Amino acid sequence: MTTEPSWSRLLAAAEAAEVGQYGVLLRLARTAAGLTLEAAGRRVGYSASTLSRMESGKRPLTDVTVLRRLAAAFDIPPRLFGLAEVGVVARRIPGAADKLTGTPGKLAREGGDDPVRRRDVLGALGGGLAGLATVPLLPTDSASGTTAASDPAGDLVAGLEQVLLRRPGPAVEIGPTALRAGLAGVRADFQASRYRALTARLPGLLTAVDGGTAEPGVAAELYNTAVHVCIKLKITGLDWLAADRALTAARRANDPAVIASVTRNVATLLRGAGRYDTAGELALQAADSLPLSGSAVSAEHLSLYGTLLCNAGYAAAQAGNRSRSTELLDEAELTAVRLGRDRNERWTAFGPTEVLLHRISAAWRLGDAGTAIDYARQVRTGAIRLPERQARYWIDVARAFDQWGKPAACYRALRIAETAAPEEVRAQPKARALAGRLLTAPTTPAMAGLHEFATRLGAA
């Protein structure tokens, strides 16, 4: 039988447990262990201020997952938190972080976009973080068809420069029907992280748009795709140029859905410039312009509305406004419930899972790595069918583990992201920065192949 700590027999502990003042119990356990707020926060991946709010009751402790994690980390008897005993309580967080440290496995050297390989990966990821130890990865020395000399993302940027800066080039004549089909194709390429395919198609489609053959709504979304690419790859200068053209075309289209879709990326650009309040206001203004009353609200409008709420919620997190961020993401979650399931209307990928992904990002931005991982555990990753979103999820998990000071777990998450979407991760500045940080961290056997991985990302 496990011996309970002496502080748990204090009258103050019994009284706190009886009325559900779990923050008081947390403070008793922390002080009994001789831990400062900063040291205790590092143990569970929270900032000192967040832990202080938990102890004072300003941040209610109601989530069972969080309570179990705190109980394990600070040797708090689960019964005091109103929890059932589950075996022997470990003195550290069980599960994901440990499983992340396993030695990367091997996978047959197939192309990075091979659908069979991707289905295998997504199937292995279906259970979320709990199944990390069994996820097959790319071989540590594999470039999966990408050599050091090839740079699909760089080629795409060069093609966009050619069009957006109006350098002389051959005219491209494409009819409206073909342009609509082309738009659907490049959006599919973007969401599948196929930068080579985007390079072959997007610049030519934009040239045709400049020739005046596109419907305004199609033109707006083609330029919007270019904006999205620039945001993803952090290509400053071209991003605002493409955004201006997207907005101009969207206004000509006079369609609230098109305007909302373009505004989503403009708000992201404003966030990147540090104008968080303006970004949030712009996103909410576009959301409010969508027709959502009546019994026949379209799934497209609901998806755009929820996506803009997520954007505004993350902007609030970037501004350090925790309560506003939570409020907006809660409203986005209600919208997702109204929508009913994960969808991909107007290429938003919006639904309950997308809201969770934004909660992960917001928690990380607010300095709460532990909360970010708690949210990550709730994601059934097999339900994320888009490789671009798969990569985003695992990169955010990696960022949270990096913030938490767990380099092996961070590395494992990055390797899984690469397996799900090789071209995406190798083009991502965020992933490259994390790989660079890992090169300076103490290495373990679980980080085998790190230098080769960092080289593939251009970080070594």
Q: What is the rounded distance between the termini? A: 51 Å
Mean pLDDT: 84
Rg measurement, Å: 24 Å
Overall geometry:
globular
For the structure shown, list the relevant keywords.
single chain, 460 residues, mainly alpha, 23 helices, 0% strand, globular
Protein topology:
Layout: H1 11-19, H2 22-32, H3 37-44, H4 48-56, H5 64-74, H6 96-100, H7 115-124, H8 152-164, H9 176-191, H10 195-210, H11 216-233, H12 238-253, H13 256-272, H14 276-288, H15 299-318, H16 322-339, H17 352-365, H18 369-378, H19 387-404, H20 407-420, H21 422-427, H22 429-439, H23 450-456
Helix pairs in contact: 1-2, 2-4, 3-4, 8-10, 9-10, 9-11, 10-11, 11-12, 11-13, 12-13, 13-14, 13-15, 14-15, 15-16, 15-17, 16-17, 17-18, 17-19, 18-19, 19-20, 20-22, 22-23
Walk me through what this model shows.
Among the domains are: 6-94, Orthogonal Bundle (434 Repressor (Amino-terminal Domain)); 151-254, no CATH class. It contains 23 helices and no strands. It has helices at 11-19, 22-32, 37-44, 48-56, 64-74, 96-100, 115-124, 152-164, 176-191, 195-210, 216-233, 238-253, 256-272, 276-288, 299-318, 322-339, 352-365, 369-378, 387-404, 407-420, 422-427, 429-439, 450-456. The chain is globular, with a radius of gyration of 24 Å. The N and C termini lie far apart (51 Å). Mean pLDDT is 84; it is low at 87-113, 120-126 and 142-149.
